[in-house]
């Protein structure tokens, strides 16, 4: 008898399965012709390892630099870094392209209440959600929300001025998080998290950062089949608990707000105006409230942190922006969300910061439609995972000249950068599922940055001078302290 029954047989069987699967993935798989490291083409564990250690976007960029515009980063997944890929994967379905690339549900599961949010909803439901959520994020709504947002920026300046008078060391990452979460808490739930007033992160926000890592851990678990998945699921019970606890708090705050009678111009007021058949159910409101908070606050704080860091590392850009600010305003009271819209160099600074330091540096994967589709001129069979990696696309020398340098002038018509592939720059994603909060994010960032530079000079501490280089990524940047000393400016 070649194999006896029992544990040894199971071991032999597993070994044979792994060997057979590896041979299939390398030599027989429908994606076998796409380039990539052999270990990534052979097994999903290569991808999972870099997810776990927080270096997947950095590794993906490295692979694109080595292999080109399309890389097979897992047996069933292709990564792209071109403008053409954005259009093919995420663009509007027109002409012969009628089937959508749906979100990869392994990466984007439903909310813990079992209801799809705008992130994962199918096309018809997504269109309904998008129509409802577009109203509270329109330019008109921003005008009515300006008083709310400005109040929190006033509070930020007040708190930082107090600390600057004492020459305290300040971690700007924390203060940007305090500001963005307080603003989004007020706009989504009708009350802030109280971070700016207390100078302390709300426990629920701390849980959000924990849950983001848990989401990535659970993605690894969901992608591993069979027995391994069972083992990892047991190990991932804490991650499940973190996600459930985080959602329950959000659910409670959403219920408190949508049962309250008020006409204040926050998100919920606009959402609740819809008729019953065109509106959202309470469960849909709760699922989407979680997305609004997580997507709208941490990303804005990351963008502001990255912008300030790169300005401090590039004094000439900082001086040029300060000159534009003082040429535009005679008093601080003139600085508003609307008045900062026309500041060309400010906008260029924000664009360039989000290029070298994209707030969401990872890939948001899609799946090819059942009948397959053309991506970058090559047919990809149905049911496989594809996506554009933000970090790889926006720091590729194929898309941008001097890709790793912070050069706002590239967005101001500088002839040296006329050949840049600007359509590869999509920090808010692309197509009918792009980020609805773009206008709000830009308005908040313009106001915060302009008010900060009007009020303070910044001295970047030595320990934070390689701030960006140290960071890892679990969907979003795991930012370390951005420590500065503030010098108050007098007028």
Descriptors for this entry?
491 residues, alpha+beta, Cytochrome p450, 5-stranded mixed beta sheet, 3-stranded antiparallel beta sheet, 18 helices, 9% strand, globular, monooxygenase activity
Instruction: Write down the overall geometry.
Output: globular
* Element pattern in H and E: HHHHEEHEHHEHHHHHHHHHEEEEHHEEEE
Separation, N- and C-terminal Cα atoms: 92 Å
Number of strands: 12
- Report strand order across the widest sheet: 1-2-8-5-3
Q: Compute the number of helices.
A: 18
> How many domains is the backbone divided into?
2
Characterize the largest beta sheet: strand count, sense, and whether it forms a barrel: 5 strands, mixed
- Would you tell me the overall average pLDDT? 92
Which radius of gyration do the C-alpha atoms yield? 24 Å
Going by CATH, the homologous superfamily of the largest domain would be Cytochrome P450
Beta-strand share of residues? 5-15%
CATH architecture of the largest domain: Orthogonal Bundle
Named CATH topology of the largest domain: Cytochrome p450
What is the helix fraction of residues, given as a range? 40-55%
The CATH class of the largest domain turns out to be Mainly Alpha
- Given as residue ranges, the uncertain stretches (5+ residues, pLDDT < 50) are none
């Amino acid at each position: 008898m070649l194999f006896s029954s029992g544990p040894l047989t199971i071991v032999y069987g597993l070994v044979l399965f792994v060997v057979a699967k590896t041979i299939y993935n390398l030599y027989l798989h429908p994606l076998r012709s796409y380039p990539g490291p052999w270990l990534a083409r052979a097994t999903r564990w290569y991808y999972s390892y870099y997810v776990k250690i927080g270096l997947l976007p950095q590794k993906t960029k490295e692979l694109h630099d080595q292999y080109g515009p399309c890389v097979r980063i897992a047996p069933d997944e292709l990564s792209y870094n071109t403008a053409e890929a954005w259009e093919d994967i995420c663009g509007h379905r027109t002409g012969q392209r009628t089937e959508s690339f749906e979100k990869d549900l392994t990466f984007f599961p439903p909310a813990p209440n079992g209801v799809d949010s705008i992130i994962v909803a199918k096309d018809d439901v997504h269109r309904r959600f998008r129509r409802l959520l577009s109203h509270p994020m329109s330019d008109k709504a921003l005008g009515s929300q300006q008083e709310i947002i400005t109040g929190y920026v006033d509070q930020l300046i007040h708190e930082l001025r107090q600390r600057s008078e004492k020459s305290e060391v300040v971690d700007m990452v924390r203060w940007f998080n305090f500001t963005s979460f307080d603003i989004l808490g007020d706009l989504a739930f009708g009350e802030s998290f109280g971070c700016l007033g207390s100078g302390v992160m709300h426990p629920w926000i701390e849980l959000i950062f924990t849950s983001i890592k848990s989401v990535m851990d659970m993605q690894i678990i969901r992608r591993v089949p069979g027995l391994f998945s069972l083992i990892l699921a047991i190990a991932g019970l804490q991650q499940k608990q973190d996600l459930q606890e985080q959602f329950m708090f959000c659910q409670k705050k959403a219920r408190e707000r949508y049962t309250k009678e008020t006409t204040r111009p926050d998100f919920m007021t606009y959402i609740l105006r819809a008729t019953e058949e065109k509106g959202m159910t309470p469960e849909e409101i709760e699922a989407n409230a979680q997305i609004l908070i997580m997507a709208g606050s941490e990303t804005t704080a990351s963008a502001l942190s990255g912008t300030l860091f790169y300005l401090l590392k590039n004094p000439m850009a900082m001086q040029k922006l300060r000159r534009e600010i003082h040429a535009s305003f005679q008093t601080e009271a003139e600085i508003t969300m609307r008045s900062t819209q026309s500041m060309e160099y400010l906008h260029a600074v924000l664009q360039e910061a989000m290029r070298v330091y994209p707030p969401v540096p990872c890939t948001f994967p899609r799946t090819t439609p059942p009948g397959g589709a053309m991506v970058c001129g090559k047919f990809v069979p149905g049911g496989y995972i594809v996506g554009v990696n933000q970090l790889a696309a926006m720091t590729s020398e194929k898309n941008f000249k001097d890709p790793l340098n912070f050069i706002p002038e590239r967005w101001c018509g500088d002839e040296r950068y006329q050949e840049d592939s600007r359509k590869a720059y999509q920090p808010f994603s692309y197509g009918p599922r792009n980020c609805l909060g773009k206008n709000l994010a830009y308005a908040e960032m313009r106001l915060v940055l302009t008010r900060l530079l009007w009020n303070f000079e910044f001295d970047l501490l030595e320990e934070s001078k390689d701030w960006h280089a140290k960071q890892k990524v679990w969907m979003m940047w795991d930012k370390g302290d951005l420590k500065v000393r503030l010098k108050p400016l007098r007028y």
